[in-house]
Write a structure and sequence with these properties.
single chain; mainly alpha; 4-stranded parallel β-sheet; 6 helices
Length: 171
Amino acid sequence: MRSWIRVLALLTFLAFAWAISADHNVRTERISGSAGDVLEDNPVGRLKVYVYELPSKYNKKILQKDPRCLTHMFAAEIFMHRFLLSSPVRTSNPEEADWFYTPIYTTCDLTPTGLPLPFKSPRMMRSAIQLISSNWPYWNRTEGADHFFVVPHDFGACFHYQVKTSRIFPV
């Protein structure tokens, strides 16, 4: 008896799935052109990102201290930095930049068992912002609104000390 109920339930499910998967009598019309036309104006080609060259204590030395950061679940900050360094969107002229990337590795402080220790991260972020705002004019002209950090840890939204009053918005 149980097997008949299972078979009936399965057939009901499959019939229902087939019925909602598509209206089988709908006429479709092909739109002329190619998908390449959508990006004809090449918006990515116009995007320019300036990558700050920060002292190595914010990134390279942290990675040298613990190479596990390259394979850790929070390695996105390292790979984004590497990607942007060789990306066609990178510009060496900050005056033509749309965005400014600040390469700090906030989640690469790991315990011996590989867990992240993000306790130093807020201080590191404040230090980097202080360095950028005192050595380059770009942070100050927009209060950091055109700057971005990659902070893959879920505490990342709390790392900026004035997140409620600044123009930095966690995404």
